[in-house]
Design brief:
The complex is a heterotrimer of chains A (338), B (513) and C (289). Chain A is mainly α. Chain A has helices at 3-26, 31-42, 46-71, 79-95, 102-131, 135-158, 188-205, 207-217, 219-224, 229-245, 248-256, 267-277, 285-301, 310-334. Chain B has a 6-stranded mixed sheet, sandwiched between helices. A 6-stranded mixed sheet of chain B has the order 18-21-22-15-23-24, sandwiched between helices. In chain B, strands 2-1-4-5 form a 4-stranded antiparallel sheet, covered by helices on one side. The chains are: A mainly alpha (338), B alpha/beta (513), C mainly alpha (289).
Chain lengths: 338, 513, 289
Amino acid sequence: MSTRAATSIAIALLIAMAVASVLILAYGQSPAHVYAVMLGHTWGDVYGLGQVLFKSTPLIFTGLAVALAFQAGLFNIGAEGQLMVGAFFMALVGAHCTGLPAPIAVSLCLIAGALAGALLGALPGWLRARFGSHEVINTIMLNFIAQALVLWAGRRFFFVEQTVHTPPIADSARLPSLGLAGSAASVGFVVALIAVVAVHGLVQRTRLGFELRALGQNAAAAAAGGIAIDRAIVIAMALSGALAGLVGAGTVLGYKGYYEEGIASGSGFMGIAVALLARNRPLWMVPAALLFGTLAHGGLAVNALVPKEIVEVIQAIVILAIAASSSDLQRLAAQGRR
Amino acid sequence: MELVLPALSISGVSKRYGDQLANDDVSLDVASGTVHAVVGENGAGKSTLLQIIYGTVRADTGRMQVLARPVDLTQHHPTAAIACGLGMVHQHFMLVPTLRVVENVVLGREPRQRGRLDLATAARDIAALGERFGLRIDPWRRIEQLTVGEQQRVELVKVLWRGADTLLLDEPTAVLAPTEVDDLFGVLRTLVAAGKCVLLVSHKLDEVNAIADAITVMRHGRVVARMAAGASAAEIASAMVGADVAAQVIAAPTAGRPGTAPRSGVAVLAVRDLVVPRSDGNRGVDHVSFELRPGEVLGVAGVQGNGQSELALALTGLLPVTAGQVRLADVDVTTATPADRRGRGLGHIPEDRLLRGLVLGFDLGENALLGRQHEFTRHGLLARERIAEYAARLIAQSDVRPPDPTLRGSSLSGGNQQKLVVGRELSRPGLRVLICAEPTRGVDVAAAAAIHQRIRAAVDSGVAALIISSDLAELRRLCDRVAVMYRGRFADVLDVAQASDRTLGALMTGVAA
Amino acid sequence: MELLGLAFALQVLRISVPYVLAALGGTLSERSGVINLALEGMLLGGAFAATVGSYLGGAAAGALAGALGGLLIAAIYGWVVLRFGADQIVSGVAINLLALGATRYLLKLIFNSASSSPSVPGFDSAGWAGLFMGLTALVVVAIHGWLMQTPGGLRLRAVGDQPAAAFSLGVDVLATRWRAVLASGALAGLGGAWLALDNHGFVDRMSGGRGYIAIAAMIFGRWQPLLATAACLLFGLADALQLNLQTSTSVVPREWVQILPYALTMVALVGIAGRSRPPAALGTPFRDH
């Protein structure tokens, strides 16, 4: 990563911290104290670390989802809905996996989640390819729609009586915990790491990755070069949705053992911040997700002192700061050429 | 002897873009009542100079005097330029396509009546100006409905309506047919007779000689020669290009082509009654038919906007066709995808390399791969070593400078970018037909010569070529026959020997053949 | 539920007000070339600001505060995309997230609540609401007239289609866009004020996607103020329908009815596809050297 890019990220984080400090002060607390408590409860003990890993897992998936779409020039703001349907179907399939050996059960669940997310992602992709209907609005609309329909399906058919969660999945479908002082961290985190490597390989080493990148940077040149634009758009959005659909690996398979209304809520939007922080590079998704995972758990830990909603504000500030600085970079670079 | 102030005087103008010096200590004077031409090849810095004078670009250093008024060119702005009586007609017209002529003319200086736009008065003024200077135009039409020549007239009226005394014209003849060029020069002479002065930038020497009273030659950002009217084209050319390069280029064979008789055999590209719509609903291509045999070169001349772009895009599969047929090596490809056609031997050098030819953010190696990635794919994975080898070879063969595959496409000059695109397309295995649009637009003379040679080499080895170009000399140099496109149809198809400027010009502007 | 009754028609008009104000703001901004997805955040921020204003000074103060709140958010958005040239889609979504987080934080800070504010003065009688609606209608007509018939409107339209042309004639492109973005914030903020005053208080996430739907209405209305307003009435109709259906019918599940406005938005976008051309320079930052 160039020093320019690194500096811009550092500046973005500093601005975010400055704003956070102001918000903390407004609540009558000392920023230094709050940060210290946050750090202590996250990287300061094993349980906290485990929780950070747990919270970071969905962010790796959604960050990858958003980044992959960005690489193809598409805006997937629908990761929120895609992760919901993915986790939902993962839990449903998992509940029917009794008697199956673990590797098969887990694989089926992961495939179910990815497939559900892929379908929900492919729809706006198809609308864009076929009708030119922009995917930003459509993915956002589908977030609302998916949330409502999953809730309906659950209440009507699948939720356990008097609850907002599905029946427990079979034991063989569960992903083992990482054993970090009873935290929620599980092998789901490892699945996320595998996804990072896979996406990196896809983007850099495969023909599909090359074509998606060409599409994202210059669709007209890609078309002139013989790349099937419509197909590429749908594939990109489907893959993006599939990645978001895998969020359930950490939350459902690795922790709760069922789908619950509100699970991993907000991860879809936070994924945008993660993807931007990582400059859309798959390998950088891990540290970026860990940062936001730290903020997410740290925010809970200090909720008695300051509202945890500060974390949401921070995340938005980071997005704005990076968006502002990465365009400045482009401008400076552009001045070096006609 | 009376000392007459020049109408416009600039000195010490410098402008750097990154590590390139676009303008290097440029000075010149323009006397009122004259036409002053600044000539130089593509990339010499002429456009930049004009934009600095007008204030759309700020110089690093430089001063200007407009009559007696001094102007600091490092702080300049179009508003100040307009106030000094400067008016500019840019190379890419500064017109809002969805608005009407009168709205474009008054923009920024709108006449008002009780807070609302008063367009009626402006329309009358426009008509009066049109009468006075020979620039007739309907004030109520939308720009997108006008031809290129008409749009240029709007640009001139716009400038005159603001009371400009000094007109700056950037490559005004680039988009005009030969007869339209004559009309334009007539207008310029009228303006100059009325006491105005004109600073004109061009790379077309014969035209410049017809109109200019004084000539400044620029090369690599510097003024290298100043000449008076009547200098020979050869003198100007060699000053433009530099003696050593000129010698190289002149040495390469340019005139005539051996074996211009069409080769016999099966047509490798057959187009019948092709109809392609345009975005505004008009017919872009209106029943065009032609055939190409291996080794044949057909040129397409025409004023921009008469369907040439649509023809190229339809043949390559990037625009849908509403009627007619395209056959490639006797296979019907009318509805085939671009990838399909490429697979059957169709190559495409696009009209706009920045739009369709290159991905600026990709490095040269990846750009070399664009459109050919399937040749280097195994089981979905890209074969990195083979690609690196291929890219290095392509860059060397095409003489792309600097020859560094890790550089971004955006860091190359126009000529080198085009050399890369041409090299990539011409080295495709199984190439049979080349669709080529404006192959040397915005390209320096040396690169243009290299590109012409590569095209000729391909043609000599049996590739058929369709070359669309607004450069009539280029068409004469490369083609066996030349078609003229007017309002979507081939007005006529001539042997290159008959394709004089006058004949082509008449066809390009719709005068019956 | 009487579909054809006057009461229903009035309800549709009431519901449409925030859509219309947001869509008008969006139209101004986008006609000047700046994509404006931040309308959702401006609505939400305006609603919160109006709640605080009304809490302190009554409904009129609330309306004014709402406009100012939207203006403030628009200023942040404008600063990021106009001063720095940040990607407008990403920044718009980020502004919406910022508004979401900030309103929740402020809810706790000011009102000590996690989900809603206490009751505040709002539209106590049909009179005030009617006045607001009448003003909205006036604004629609005024903006249409301004855009199409004044020099300012001509410049704004030119800046959105071909900023280089406008710049070459001395029009200040950046200033024009700034004014358009700020105006969009004030208008959307007023829309948010309506929401808060109508509800007599602020509820977490109360904008509910209206900002995005307003954008769809603007696209459906081909970026023209009058057509966009008509489209907003259509979406308002859908919204009113789903509200009424939720309480009256037990055959169609509540959740399916709730998605009506969102689904309609998607259908509308497909329907208008290819026939609605955005301003040519939309989304492209303008740099004068």
